[in-house]
Amino acid sequence: MRYVILVLLNLPIILLALVNILTQYKMKKVSKARFRHQIILWSVILVLLICSFPLYNQLTGNPPLDSKELSLFDIVQTTALVFMLYVINRQRQQIEQNERMMRDLHQEISIKLSVKEK
Which residues of 12-44 are buried (b: 16+ CB within 10 A; e: fewer)? Predict the structure, then answer.
């Protein structure tokens, strides 16, 4: 049961990250390479989240979904790590967007000033 809670707490965060990157790609705010990189990153996190604990239980000889060794601290810690990855990734994307906008504005100002001088 604890493992199901762990997955249910982290699944919305991962799905939100996937939807955000898909939206940004459709709005042409991220490149195709960045989109692919982000999709791979969040897919790997999702697969690791879903498969790692049952795989560990299989290797130790326990039933796959036996979660008696999974503590509340482990659930909170894993959820916090996934959420922090989401926040850090989102902040990086916003910084890149701001830098791109500033570069475009600077270029536009330079063009207008050069036309004005002529």
Answer: ebbeebbebbeebbeeeebeeeebeebeeebee
The residue extents of the domains of the chain are 2-117
Kindly report which listed range (15-19, 62-66, 86-90, 102-106) carries the lowest average pLDDT score. 62-66
Tokens for 70, please give them.
Answer: 């999974």
Q: What's the distance, CA 14 to chain centroid? A: 6
Return d(Cα 49, Cα 115) in angstroms, integer.
56
* pTM across the whole model: 0.81
Nearest to residue 100, comparing CAs of 37, 35, 29?
Answer: 29
Of the given ranges (58-72, 81-95, 96-110), which has the lowest mean pLDDT? 58-72
Residue 83 to residue 111: CA distance in whole angstroms: 42
CB 38 within 8 A of CB 30: yes
In the chain, the percentage of residues whose pLDDT exceeds 90 is 67
